[in-house]
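Aim 2, interim progress. The first record below pairs a target sequence with its structure tokens.
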Amino acid sequence: MAHQVEIELKTPEEIGQMRRAGLVVADALARMRAAVAPGVTTADLDAIAEDTIRAAGAIPSFKGYHGFPASICSSVNDQVVHAIPSHRQVLRAGDLISIDCGAELDGWHGDAAITVGVGEITNDLRRLVTVAEDAMWAGIAAAARGVRSGKGRLTDISFAIQSAVRKAGRYGIVDGYGGHGIGSAMHQDPFVENSGRPGKGPALRPGMALAIEPMITKGKPKVAELDDGWTVVTVDGSVAAHVEHTMAICDDGVWVLTAPDGGRARLGELVTARQQVNA
């Protein structure tokens, strides 16, 4: 029997509450980005995240989620997603780390991820990060255009992400992992694939909130889960990048809730007129 998709539609006031959670996540990620350096451990980064989130009166969304033991996922090099922070994972110059972070504030969630180079990284790795970020923003822009036209469907986002990656070169788009609905729970319907044909799935409607998160590799897309039950790695050992923003769909565009500027620098007039930069 097919899974019945149940999408939570938020009021403008609830989206405003999600924005507050989103800004907590943005602050935590900014602090971790600044701390990434050779010799730092992924456990050090996790401590920064937890301290930042709790100081804001929020709760780390990840900690305890299905038993996950930390406040962030800290995936280094061939680790794609869900790697557990550790005092034994010491960052080295040339590494690439993806940091995924979530916070719950007054019952509403924000979720975002960044991929950061450790010290000097190669041009190839810088390019990998740029391609992932561009694909994420292409997906968000597709949602904004879709709601404005009144004809947008969920897989328009998937197709935009896929098209941006394919146009950029030979990168693997990780299958089976993707974005998701978000709101009063961290993971909700619908699942947002990072590839697919456009014009399918639920209509894009004001009140929807989605986490858009491409995961791409420098090699083949096949991945495997390690024995810890969490860490996902590339089978061929190629380096991966993972980026994510939480966005809300409004009647006149989108509001990127985990971007301090709401997404305006990347999306321009596709951002809703209602959004306030720091509220």
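The second target in this work package is listed in the same format:
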Amino acid sequence: MTIATPTPVRDALDGIDLTHERVLVTTGPRSGLVVIVAVHSTALGQALGGARMWQYENWTDALADALRLSAAMTLKNAAAGLSLGGGKSVIRIPVGTVLTSAQKRDAMLDLGDAIESLNGAYMTAEDVGTSAELMSIVAERTDHVCGLPADRGGVGEPADATAAGVYAAILATVEALFGTREIAGRHLVISGLGQVGGRLARALAAAGARLTVTDVNLTTRKLAAEIGAEWVDVDSAHTVEADLFVPCGLGGVLSERVISELRVLGVVGAANNQLAHRSGAALLDARGILWAPDFVVNAGGVIYLSMASVHGADLDAVSRRVDAIGDTVAAILTTSREQGTTTLEAAERLSAERLGAAV
């Protein structure tokens, strides 16, 4: 009898460098769900990053997501000039499972206990699959949570600020491409019309942009009709010929295949970890497609949570800081062009300089 060699399966953790200060993986005693808290860096201060509750095939997929997202939060917070480190928490829901309200509550209590065990190294907030209301449950078990509902003493969820920062980044990218920040008449393809993408679509439509949009949630076609946007299937959105592709869904969208099929001059959006692989930055550059690094573009939310949560916060100052994301993007695009590097390298250098100054 011949024993066949098993077909190797690519491990979800392959290619991920473990540069984290601490990673907690536990099974929630109430929910039975895998809860992961990844603290990547506290060099600049307490690690801040949202709590993601999502379906994953395996717990190692959830761990890989937490490691990537937390490392990106270190870059994001540093590039934004915040005195915060980078971290992320992920709760793994088995594929095909729909949690009841009671199960979600148990999961949030488990998350709160996990965060509390880290003695202040990490603070959480809402992210994909969670909300300001769910964060108020986390707050029953730990003080290290922000973005609570306004009626519970918090500053609410940060989608408005995130969308505002992405809008500022789009204007900076348009200026780099066309020499003007005029958005009227420009054609943008928005993939993902959730909390941030939906707000962004409304703002761009109001400014006179021509929009093509899509989302896995077909109920968002109502928004498309409302703002006069053209609807396309998710799988074909990246092939639409336009000025900008604006990814606002989950990460990993910019695979080698997608990059080869893009028919745009630039990519700038709210999604985290847009590059399926780091090499995607060079592939985009080789095709002459200007990519605004996601961890700079989508920093409006953490800026808002960091500044607005301070007692007596000046909301006008918060807005100015969020709008300044456009200036940071412009500087990164200029540095990339002048030094002959990818925009990813230019953005990482900015973050590294700020992290190095803290050592």
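Confidence is low (pLDDT under 50) at residues 1-10. This observation will shape the mutagenesis plan for the next reporting period.
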